[in-house]
């Protein structure tokens, strides 16, 4: 298949290319240049996509899991054939450095292959000859995946792989800021999957609500902000759609007095600043024991000064721009607010004028716990370092948040670190590591960080309805 990665971006509806009368411009955040135009779907075309999916559902759910596993692996193989083109396109639309884009594509391929290895055996709850009770896991129907702009390919695949494996059919809606790689993924899928099984649609801000309100859609899998997640849930109530919501976080990292500062610094630096801080599980508040604080802060600033920021296509660049103008403005406003509140910055804090949505690394020096720079999710390269003096105090501060996505604890005495981790309110708590995820590992948020999980058997079951079959040998 010869794919044009430079200019030809079409939706995939019912296994065919689909254009629209209106288009949307896509901007490279490093240059602010328009790099492509994509279809802005009309509501009648969304209806066509939902109808096509519904028509494909019967055959797809009955084809058997072995066939679906094989086709998902084939999709992974085709993505691997085009990995370099996808990585370059991802950098151009998203801004992340080319090495990170290649890693996102590689991880997506790995996820497709690994998820395709999962089985969906029924659970036998009772196996007496006269009364057998079986719990089956049957597909839900038409699933819509609403993906964000920070990991457009990776987070789309987190939804596509389990949903299709379970026997559902899908619509994928990428963010209007990063639709290009998703549209190309749809193009690849046209050659592999039966028509209607995976439809990829692009559109402006009206498309999200059209999807969440659509009576022909049975489930929404959403990654994005907590505020939008709540809107999705409200709107999904119309026909009682199932929802999986992966939302915001304000992950604390706790550095205990016996932590190995030199070893921890690079891990926590990248946990905070990779992808320009635009990661739901970025470390967004680092609590450092007072006995280490000055040494830790100096080492973190030194490390930050060695990192190169720029256009992700340039050799050696490690951090790219903020992905889009509204997010750039939000992060700039947060920094301006911190400045006017008197926050001290050990590094950065100002945003120079220039081309591209670039924000220099900003490290705040022990700001007030209630300040916006601590209490809010920056979703940008802004990190508060905070001092603590005892474990009870730091646990209370870490848990004092509406979010509960993930957290990390760092220390040499594992039992002491574990004792702290046990008290943290979050969906994942890492000890001496961070952002450690896997296709077999359920991932989801507590509190307002989400609903349900992705990945692992629990994540796969989110794409199934439970169905109990009670079989009796004779009328009872
Ligand atoms: P949103 O959460 O608003 O949007 C995410 C996706 O949802 C987009 O595709 C968006 O499309 C869509 N959407 C928006 N409104 C609705 C709706 N009512 N119904 C259905 N879909 C909808 O993210 P933003 O881009 O506005 O970013 C804002 C904040 O979200 C960031 O500052 C960050 O804190 C957080 N965020 C978190 C992510 C995560 O990984 N958890 C990822 C991205 C952002 P459209 O743009 O067309 O409205």
Question: How are the SSEs ordered, and which strands pair?
Answer:
Blueprint: E1 11-13, E2 16-18, E3 22-27, E4 34-40, H1 43-62, H2 65-81, H3 83-94, H4 98-116, E5 123-128, E6 131-139, E7 142-146, H5 152-165, E8 169-173, H6 180-192, E9 198-200, H7 207-213, E10 219-223, H8 226-236, E11 242-246, E12 251-255, H9 261-273, E13 283-289, H10 293-305, H11 325-340, E14 345-347, E15 362-365, H12 372-375, E16 382-388, H13 391-399, E17 403-404, E18 406-410, H14 414-421, E19 428-431, E20 446-447, E21 450-451, H15 456-461, E22 464-472
Parallel strand pairs: 7-8, 7-10, 8-9, 10-11, 12-13, 12-18, 13-16, 15-16, 18-19
Antiparallel strand pairs: 1-2, 3-4, 5-6, 6-22, 11-21, 14-15, 17-20
Helix pairs in contact: 2-4, 2-6, 3-4, 4-5, 7-8, 9-10
Family: Belongs to the aldehyde dehydrogenase family.
Keywords: Oxidoreductase
GO molecular function: aldehyde dehydrogenase (NAD+) activity
Descriptive report:
The chain has 476 residues and is an alpha/beta fold. The protein folds into two domains: 11-247 and 449-468, 3-Layer(aba) Sandwich (Aldehyde Dehydrogenase, Chain A, domain 1), CATH 3.40.605; 251-440, Aldehyde Dehydrogenase, Chain A, domain 2. The chain has helices spanning 43-62, 65-81, 83-94, 98-116, 152-165, 180-192, 207-213, 226-236, 261-273, 293-305, 325-340, 372-375, 391-399, 414-421, 456-461; strands at residues 11-13, 16-18, 22-27, 34-40, 123-128, 131-139, 142-146, 169-173, 198-200, 219-223, 242-246, 251-255, 283-289, 345-347, 362-365, 382-388, 403-404, 406-410, 428-431, 446-447, 450-451, 464-472. Helix 8 (226-236) links the parallel strand 10 and strand 11. The model has no long low-confidence stretch (mean pLDDT 98). Bound molecules: NADPH dihydro-nicotinamide-adenine-dinucleotide phosphate. NADPH dihydro-nicotinamide-adenine-dinucleotide phosphate binds at residues 146, 148-150, 175-176, 205, 208-209, 212, 223-225, 228, 231-232, 246-248, 280, 327, 330, 377, 379.
């Amino acid at each position: 298949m010869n794919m044009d990665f430079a200019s030809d971006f079409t939706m995939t509806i019912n296994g065919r290319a689909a254009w629209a009368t209106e288009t949307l411009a896509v901007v490279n955040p490093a240059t602010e240049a328009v790099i492509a135009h994509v279809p802005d779907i009309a509501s009648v075309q969304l209806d066509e996509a939902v109808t096509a999916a519904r028509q494909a559902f019967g055959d797809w759910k009955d084809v058997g899991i072995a066939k679906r596993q094989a086709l998902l692996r084939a999709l992974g193989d085709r993505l691997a054939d085009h990995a370099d083109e996808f990585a370059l396109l991802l950098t151009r639309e998203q801004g992340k450095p080319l090495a990170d884009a290649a890693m996102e594509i590689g991880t997506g391929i790995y996820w497709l292959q690994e998820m395709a290895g999962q089985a969906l055996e029924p659970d036998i709850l009772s196996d007496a000859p006269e009364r057998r009770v079986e719990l089956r896991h049957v597909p839900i129907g038409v699933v819509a995946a609403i993906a964000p702009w920070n990991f457009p390919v990776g987070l789309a695949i987190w939804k596509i792989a389990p949903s299709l494996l379970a026997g559902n059919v899908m619509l994928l809606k990428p963010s209007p800021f990063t639709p290009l790689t998703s549209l190309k993924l749809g193009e690849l899928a046209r050659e592999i999957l039966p028509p209607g099984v995976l439809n990829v649609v692009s559109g402006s801000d009206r498309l999200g609500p059209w999807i969440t309100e659509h009576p022909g859609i049975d489930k929404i899998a959403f990654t994005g902000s907590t505020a939008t997640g709540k809107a999705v849930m409200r709107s999904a109530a119309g026909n009682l759609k199932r929802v999986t919501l992966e939302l915001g976080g304000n992950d604390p990292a706790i550095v205990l007095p016996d932590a190995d500062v030199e070893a921890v610094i690079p891990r926590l630096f990248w946990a905070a600043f990779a992808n320009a801080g635009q990661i739901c599980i970025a470390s967004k508040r680092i609590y450092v024991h007072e006995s280490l604080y000055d040494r830790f802060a100096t080492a973190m600033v030194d490390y930050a000064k060695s990192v190169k920021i720029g256009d992700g296509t340039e050799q050696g660049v490690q951090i790219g721009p903020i992905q889009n103008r509204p997010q750039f403005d939000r992060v700039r406003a947060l920094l301006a607010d911190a400045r006017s509140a008197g926050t001290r910055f050990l590094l950065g804090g100002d945003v120079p004028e220039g081309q591209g949505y670039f924000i220099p690394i900003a490290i705040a020096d022990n700001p007030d716990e209630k300040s916006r720079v601590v209490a809010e999710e920056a979703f940008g390269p802004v990190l508060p370092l905070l001092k603590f003096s005892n474990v009870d105090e730091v646990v209370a501060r870490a848990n004092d948040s509406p979010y509960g996505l993930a957290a990390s604890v760092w220390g040499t005495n594992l039992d002491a670190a574990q004792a702290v981790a046990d008290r943290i309110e979050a969906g994942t708590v890492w000890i001496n590591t961070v952002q450690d995820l896997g296709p077999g590992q359920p991932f989801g948020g507590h509190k307002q960080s989400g609903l349900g999980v992705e990945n692992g058997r629990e994540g796969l079951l989110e794409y199934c309805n439970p169905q109990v079959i009670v079989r009796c040998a004779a009328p009872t």
